[in-house]
Each structure stands twice: as structure tokens, then as C-alpha cells.
Automatic annotation (TrEMBL):
This is Gamma-glutamyl-hercynylcysteine sulfoxide hydrolase. InterPro entries: EgtC (IPR017808), EgtC-like (IPR026869), EgtC_Actinobacteria (IPR032889), Gamma-glu_amide_hydrolase (IPR052373), GATase_2_dom (IPR017932), Ntn_hydrolases_N (IPR029055). GO terms for molecular function: hydrolase activity, acting on carbon-nitrogen (but not peptide) bonds, in linear amides. HAMAP family: EgtC (MF_02036). PANTHER family: GAMMA-GLUTAMYL-HERCYNYLCYSTEINE SULFOXIDE HYDROLASE, GLUTAMINE AMIDOTRANSFERASE DUG3-RELATED. It comes from Streptomyces aurantiogriseus. Pathway: Amino-acid biosynthesis; ergothioneine biosynthesis. Catalyzes the hydrolysis of the gamma-glutamyl amide bond of hercynyl-gamma-L-glutamyl-L-cysteine sulfoxide to produce hercynylcysteine sulfoxide, a step in the biosynthesis pathway of ergothioneine. The lineage of its organism: Bacteria, Bacillati, Actinomycetota, Actinomycetes, Kitasatosporales. Its EC number is 3.5.1.118. One of its GO terms (biological process) is ergothioneine biosynthetic process.
Amino acid sequence: MCRHVACVGPEEPLGRLLVQPPHALYRQSWAPRRQRYGTVNADGFGVGWYAEGDPAPARYRRAGPIWADLSFADLARVVRTRALLAAVRDATLAGADAEAAAAPFAAGPWLFSHNGAVKGWPGSLESLARTLPAAELLSMEARNDSAFVWALVLARLRAGDAEGQALADTVQEVAAAAPGSRLNLLLTNGDTITATAWGDTLWYLTEPGRTVVASEPYDDDPHWQEVPDRTLLAATRTEVLLTPLKDPGADAAPAPHKETGT
């Protein structure tokens, strides 16, 4: 149901992460190795990145498959960034929102992506729609489940919640309303990465001054670490903190576990 990746670290071309590795996101659009649901991610793609001195990210999104975009190779070759979030999409339901439905979604300093699907969408989240101001519902970029989950996360961020708290509370709220949902969320502000593993694969790689979080490894480096299911990940350029998430109605979760980059 999509593949996504985020990175914070030294400035580098987009293509070094998204195109050049043997199993990069570009290749995952037609040949993912660890995708549990769906086989081809051809329903849109997007990349968001941060320019030096500008806290608001830029985005490039399209409705079609990444391999069919003749401009993307040039963009990926010359654009350099210290942080990015990118995704290729396998739509849960066909819709008319075109590139508006393609991640990353954006607001202020944040970029966001959702890998998964909300069970019973849209009826299952009717009660949660009532918790959002009408203006926020009407200003959603798209009419799909991912855009709605982003609206829930963004409302919490704008209310002052920390990024990890905003993701964790949203996942648990949606999981309670729509059991069986897959809610791998990915968020960056250009300096940190926050993510959840909830129903699909998530991995991370730490290198000196650089952290990558992805649906699946883009190469065969043995230092990739898989994130356990039902886990919140919070990462900087130098360390990764993993905190188990509690399923609605489950017992208390164990203590967090910290990984430090080498």
C-alpha cells in the first residue's frame, strides 16, 4: 500500500537516496521486496525536501508512476538537501484527486506520509471527523484516508503536541475507531524523523551524522534494523529512540529503547 522513506543528514542529491541504490524507492515502485499489501506502486509519487535557510519544504508530486516522469531524473540529479521525505503510492481506492492524493502532505515545517489503509474508510472514522473544525475538513488536500489521518495529526501538532505524541495518539485513536487498520506514519520537520510501525514494515539505518527511515531497505547493508510492529520511532541525525505502542485496550507497554548512531 505504498513505500516511503525519510532522511536527515549531510546535504546530498535527492537521487543518491531515491534513485541510485540498487533497491531505491524508484525501483520499489515496481519491484518492492518487503511489501505485504499490493505489488506495484504506480498511483502517484512525491518527494519533499528542505533548502538551506528555508524552514518550509518544497514538494514535487505527480499522479502517475515515478518511472514515467521524464523530469524526475534531472530533478533528483541536481537538487541537494539535508532532509527529505518521499513516497510512491498504491492507492487503496481509485479516486479523482490525482497528485493531491500523493504524499508527502505538507504544512508549515512538516512533511507527512501514510503507508497503509484505514479499515472501513470512510464510514469507520465518521466519529473522528466531528473532532476536527469544519474549516480543516474542507481544506484537506484530498478525499482519501491518508489525507484525513494527516488532518488528525496536524490538528494535534498545531495544538502544541510533540511530534511523537501527535503520531502515537492519532494511531491509537484511529485503531480504536477502525480496528485492523494499517497505520505506518512518517513525519519530518527537516531536523528529526518521527514514525510508527503499525501493520506494515519499517526499517532504519544510522550512519555518522545521518539517519534513514524507510518502509524497506534500499540496499543490502547489514546495518539496517527492522522496527518491531506497534512501535513509535523518534530519530535525529545521531540517534534513534524506539517506544512500544499500546493497542487500544491492551496492557501497559514496556520502556523505550535507544539506539545511537555509529
